[in-house]
């Protein structure tokens, strides 16, 4: 049962990985960055709406939602009432774990942001985020997109709801995905990230949620196994 339940998410995970690798190979990151940037920088970098609402406001709201998920472990509201206590714990921990994973990747990344590139008025050269150990001449710490994780961190809701209500699970997934792409796009307009940064953030948050759910289901399966029969002594 668990293997069959994991088959579809696994197929989606591998398919998304193939698309991501194809995107990285396409070189379209710089093409899109040039649509928003100029040789002197990114006009949207200091736009009031993008900075105050889409960046700072969304970040604050996301942390309030994380806190709300932990509070809802004890006092669930709305859709969360459909979940058991263990499922609510899984949802809250998955959101926090996803943000932590993205932050860890960013901390070790040597990839700089588009606004740091020479072609946009900075000092860095464009270097693939796969060129591990190779510096681009900029400050780095820009891969993947940390801000987009403010929404993608909630993709884990798909796993906790799909056994209770597949329709809610799909709607939850769609909302988290659209919100994450919107936050990622706002940062791309500012020159803070490439499209690939946003897409990899979505994939990493999904994989984190998938891994946690797999561990939870494996543990539940072991707990539900019937006790082993004692061996008969052979005469």
Q: Termini, distance in Å?
A: 39 Å
Kindly state the number of beta strands: 0
| Shape call | globular
User: What proportion strand?
Assistant: under 5%
Count the DSSP helices. 8
Low-pLDDT stretches are: 228-232
What is the string of SSEs from the N terminus onward?
A: HHHHHHHH
Mean pLDDT across every amino acid position = 92
Main β-sheet: number of strands, strand sense, barrel status?
none
- Helical content stands at 55-70%
User: Structural class, judged by helices and strands?
Assistant: mainly alpha
Radius of gyration: 21 Å
Q: What features would you describe in this structure?
A:
This protein is an all-alpha fold and 235 residues long. The chain is 63% helix and 0% strand.
């Amino acid at each position: 049962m668990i293997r069959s339940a994991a088959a579809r998410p696994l197929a989606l995970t591998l398919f998304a990985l193939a698309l991501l690798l194809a995107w990285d190979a396409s070189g379209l990151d710089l093409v899109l960055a040039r649509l928003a940037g100029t040789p002197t920088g990114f006009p949207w970098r200091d736009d009031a709406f993008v900075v105050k609402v889409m960046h700072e406001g969304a970040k604050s709201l996301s942390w309030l939602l994380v806190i709300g998920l932990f509070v809802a472990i004890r006092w669930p509201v709305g859709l969360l009432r459909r979940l058991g206590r263990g499922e609510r714990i899984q949802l809250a921990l998955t959101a926090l774990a996803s943000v932590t994973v993205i932050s860890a990747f960013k901390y070790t990344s040597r990839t700089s942001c588009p606004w740091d590139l020479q072609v946009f008025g900075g000092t860095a050269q464009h270097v693939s985020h796969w060129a591990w150990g190779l510096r681009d001449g900029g400050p780095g710490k820009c891969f993947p997109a940390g801000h987009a994780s403010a929404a993608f961190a909630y993709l884990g809701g798909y796993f906790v709801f799909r056994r209770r209500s597949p329709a809610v699970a799909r709607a939850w997934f769609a909302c988290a995905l659209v919100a994450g792409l919107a936050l990622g796009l706002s940062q791309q307009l500012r020159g803070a990230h490439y499209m690939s940064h946003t897409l990899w953030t979505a994939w990493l948050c999904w994989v984190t949620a998938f891994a946690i759910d797999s561990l939870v289901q494996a543990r539940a399966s072991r707990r539900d196994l019937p006790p082993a029969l004692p061996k008969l002594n052979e005469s």
